[in-house]
Amino acid sequence: MARHMVRICTLIIAVCLIAACGAPSESPEMTEDELVAKARGIHDRVLTIDTHDDIPFNFATEEVDPGKRGGRQVDLPKMEEGGLDAGFFIVFVGQTERTPENYEKAKVDAMKKFDAIHRMTEEMYPDRIELAYTTDDVLRIHESGKLVACIGIENGYVIGKDLSLLKKYQELGARYITLAHGGHNDIADSSTPRDRLGDGEAEHNGVSAFGQEVIAEMNRVGIMVDVSHISKQAMLDAAKYSTAPVIASHSSVAALCDHPRNMDDEQLMALKANGGVMQTVAFNPYVKKVSEAKSAATDSLRQAFGITGFQSSRDMSEEQRAAYDQGMEEINKTWPRANLQDFVDHIDYAVKLIGLDHVGISSDFDGGGGIDGWNNAAETFNVTLELVRRGYTEAQIAQLWSGNLLRVWREVERIAADLQKTS
């Protein structure tokens, strides 16, 4: 009898531990058709948000028309087809030498992308997609049946040394800023220093004194602090300095793929302590380690297309993009890419380590993202299907797709309102 009671107590403790970390439960036996039907129903009901979709400088023009199905990974038809309800369209400006002239150019380039997103939502397709400025906007627009556009800034370089630009960008719709990108800037150290910029391993040993001011002002005006792309120490600093929860808008787990862009267990625990969320990213090299042979073949292809930097690969014509994609397809046949199972392994790991409340989903589409099974917005349902296969419930899937990100965003809004009352 005593042994029986011990076994029952052990079982109860195990169940409680699973519930505490938010791990999925085992799915009951279902046929494939039943499983797909269940996943389809869940996918249709939950709000899906992808927190990182890149755009080129000629976005929302006749050359790159988001309302027409084309060669890019994200456009309105693909979002509608795949059930991707909302996307953060990204204002990205690559890091260059920090000179007064380059600061001005970065601001001009940022405005081109802001203008493009507003043009898409306000002039070209206001009946299909609307720009959200608040969490309430996201829910209202979604309920109306339209797609939701949000704006994120990738690389705090676009503010130069001018804190007042944070309020301007916030008024234009920016709701997160990645503090740094490839190469150090005035705000923080990058996880990927650039030799061409003269970067050492670290410049500020984390977040700079100016960066602390930037974070404080972002908290005040209501912009989420994004810790993707920055160095480990900078990430730990940002989580400590921010009075609001932070996000990692597109990062994955270092324990499963050791890459400078991924988050190790210490960072994940710091994110949890801060109340933030990691938006697990479907970017092949961050999901699955790339072999040296594949890297060499990819480098050769990039050279053949004259791609010498990160920015140039984003600004190809449709024809160039198609030819380049065909070349990458041949490479991926020889050396298979990461797939949905690999990707959701990262979600599982993070959920088990830091809890379901701190994990989300992102793609980095049109900025290098994409894996087998989720290579464009039209394939978004496949992510939900794999989560259902793993035993995640509808409520848990809703949290991963949008609930956790909206919780953080809503808390950032609340803290900003409080700070503005006292300033």
Structural class computed from helices and strand pairing = alpha/beta
Shape: globular
Report the radius of gyration as a whole number of Å: 21 Å
Helicity level = 40-55%
Largest sheet: 6 strands, parallel
- Poorly predicted regions are 1-21
Mean pLDDT: 91
Q: For the record, what CATH class of the largest domain applies?
A: Alpha Beta
The count of DSSP E runs of length 2 or more, i.e. the number of strands, is 9
Named CATH architecture of the largest domain: Alpha-Beta Barrel
Oligomer: single chain
Description of the molecule:
The protein has 423 residues and is an alpha/beta fold. The protein folds into two domains: 32-288 and 338-422, TIM Barrel; 289-336, no CATH class. 50% of the residues lie in helices and 11% in strands. It has helices at residues 2-21, 32-45, 76-82, 100-124, 135-144, 164-172, 209-221, 232-241, 265-274, 284-287, 292-304, 310-314, 318-334, 340-354, 381-389, 394-422; strands spanning 49-54, 86-92, 129-131, 147-154, 174-178, 224-226, 247-251, 277-281, 359-362. β5 (174-178), α7 and β6 (224-226) form a beta-alpha-beta unit. The relative contact order is 0.15. The model is unreliable at 1-21 (pLDDT under 50).
Structure keywords:
six-stranded parallel sheet; 16 helices; TIM Barrel; 423 residues; three-stranded parallel sheet; globular; 2 domains; alpha/beta; single chain
